[in-house]
C-alpha cells in the first residue's frame, strides 16, 4: 500500500482541482449547475427575505389563523400528550402503521366500506401526499411500463415532477376555463373521450390546486360513467379532504361515486392540510383491487418499492393520526377544527370579494367565492403578480394563485387594495 507521503507527492494542483495522476479529487461535482428554484417554495424564501412590515405571504399552501400564525390543532396537541413518554421508538412495519392505514381507508372509502371488509384494498403509509403520488408513479412504471399519465391543465406543479422522475410519460387534459374562471367541462369530457381506452388519469378528489374549481356531483357522475365506458383508471389525489366543504365525508363524494360505479381506483391521502401535520409527512396510498389475493400481492410490491428508498415510514405523525381517528371524542374535535379552518377560508373569500367590489373594481370577482378549498385562481397575470410583489410586498406564485389560508382580517383590505391597483387598467 502506498504511504501517505507518496500519495501527497503524486498530487498536483491543477487550477481548481487536485489531481492524482489523471484522477481529479475536488471537482467531482463541477458539472452540477444550481437547480431552478421551486416555484412555490421559492415564494416563501423571497417573502422571508423582505424586511417590509406590510409584507403578506399568500404563496404557500399552509393554513394560518386570523393572526397569520401557523396552527397546531387541539386534537393534535391532545394526541401528543397521550403519546408523550408512552411509546417506544421501534421501526414501523415496512408498510407503515396498520392502525393509521385502517383509519385512513375508512375516511376515504367510507366507514362501512365493503371493500375494507373484503380486504380488497392494498394500502401503505406514505410520506404524505407527495410520497403517495410518487410511490404510485413508480408502481405504475414498474408494472405497466408502457402506460402514460394524463394530468389536468393546470395542476399542482409537483405532479409533473413526480411522474417525470418516475419516468412515466405525461399527457395533459383540459380542465380550466380562463374566461369563466370555472370548469371547462365540455373540453375535459372531450379529452377523456379521445384518450386511448384504458388510460391513467390523475384527478384531484376535491379542492383542485391551483384553481379551486371542482366538478359538481352531477359532473362527477358523468365523468365516472365515461371512465367506465373507456375503461380509464382514476387515480385520486386527495390532499384536501375536509378543506373544501369543512366536512371530510362530503369532500370524499367524488371517490364514493366512482366506487359505487364499480371502478378500481387509486388514492393518495395526506394529513398535511386537514390535520395541519405538514412537516410530519404522514399519508396513505391505496389501490382497490379485484380481490384479497391481488391486494396482498400489490401491497407487497408497494413495500418493495419503498424498501430501498426509505425502508419504512416515520412513526410520530402516524401515531397522532391513528390516535385522533380511532378515539370518538378526538375525532369529533378534529371534525370541528377542520370545519373552523374551512369556514375561516370561506369567510376570507367573501371578505376579499366584498373589499374589491367596494373599491369599485370594474372586474368581476365572483370566482373568488365560487372557487373552493385553499386556493383562489385569481386570473392575475405574471406581470400583475410581479407588481404586487415589487410595489406592495405581496408574495404569491406567478400563475396568480392566492392561498386564501394566508388572508386574514388584518390584511384583506390591504390585499384587495393592491389587487385593485394592479388590475384596474385591464
Ligand atoms: C394537489 C396536491 N397534491 C398533493 C400535495 C402534497 O402535499 P403533502 O406532500 O404535503 O401531503 C399537495 C400539497 O400542496 C397538493 O396541493
UniProtKB/TrEMBL annotation:
SUPFAM superfamilies: PLP-dependent transferases (SSF53383). Its cofactor is pyridoxal 5'-phosphate. One of its GO terms (molecular function) is pyridoxal phosphate binding. One of its GO terms (biological process) is amino acid metabolic process. InterPro entries: Aminotransferase_I/II_large, Asp_trans, NHTrfase_class1_PyrdxlP-BS, PyrdxlP-dep_Trfase, PyrdxlP-dep_Trfase_major, PyrdxlP-dep_Trfase_small. One of its GO terms (cellular component) is mitochondrion. NCBIfam families: PRK09257.1 (NF006719). This is Aspartate aminotransferase.
